[in-house]
Design goal:
single chain, 178 residues, alpha/beta, Leucine Aminopeptidase, subunit E, domain 1, seven-stranded mixed sheet, 5 helices, 7 strands, 37% helix, binds ligand AR6
Length: 178
């Protein structure tokens, strides 16, 4: 599904965040120590190669809601933005911290002249944030940021399953008009 809001394209696709060659930046659902780990972080670090972990160590540890930017190394993307989502039920207030992840990632993208950025569903894997609630926070935050965006023209949400994609598409249709 693709929607356009005030000149910014928002799309939802099913796929692998580490295989988005047409995006200038991808976002990593990182751990505080910016180490490879599993899920999204594992896939990104495997594809990027060891240079990514080495650069990451300059910025670690990070706090929930924070975002930092590195080069993409062997990834097809120029940049990786690493953000730490809240662990559901532990890092509070969850919705504010999750919203900060999306907002701070987009602010970094703006500062680096990034025109296209792909997000995974931050915190909805190992960190156990319920997908429906996380989807509402992600899309609301991104749509609220659009008036401030001067560089970012394309925002893609990359979902790992068909059922997650359906949830994103329903929420995007609700917020952006179907
Ligand atoms: N591409 C797109 N989405 C994916 C991929 C992929 N390759 N792999 C998993 N997902 P998670 P978190 C989905 O656990 O909850 C890591 O070990 C997944 O189905 O990657 O923020 C880190 O090191 C889920 O919907 O991120 C941290 O310790 C979503 O991406 C911790 O897990 C996020 O899953 C971060 O946990």
């Amino acid at each position: 599904m693709i929607k356009e809001i005030s000149g910014v394209t928002i799309e939802c696709v099913m796929g692998n965040i580490a295989d988005q060659p047409d995006m200038m930046a991808i976002v990593n659902a990182a751990n505080a120590h910016l180490r490879p780990g599993g899920g999204v972080a594992g896939a990104i670090h495997r594809a990027a190669g060891p240079g990514l972990e080495e650069e990451c160590q300059k910025y670690a540890p990070i706090e929930p809601g924070q975002a930092v930017i590195t080069a993409g190394y062997n990834l097809p993307n120029k940049y990786v933005i690493h953000t730490l989502g809240p662990v559901y039920g532990v890092d509070k207030p969850e919705a504010k911290l999750l919203s900060d992840c999306y907002r701070n990632s987009l602010l970094l993208a703006e500062q680096h002249g990034i025109d296209s950025i792909a997000f995974p569903a931050i915190s909805t894997g190992y960190f156990r944030y319920p997908l429906e609630q996380a989807t509402a926070v992600a899309l609301k935050t991104v749509i609220e940021m659009i008036p401030q965006l001067k560089q970012v023209k394309k925002i893609r949400f990359v979902l790992f399953s068909e059922s997650d994609l359906v949830v994103y598409e329903a929420e995007l249709a609700r917020l952006a008009g179907s």
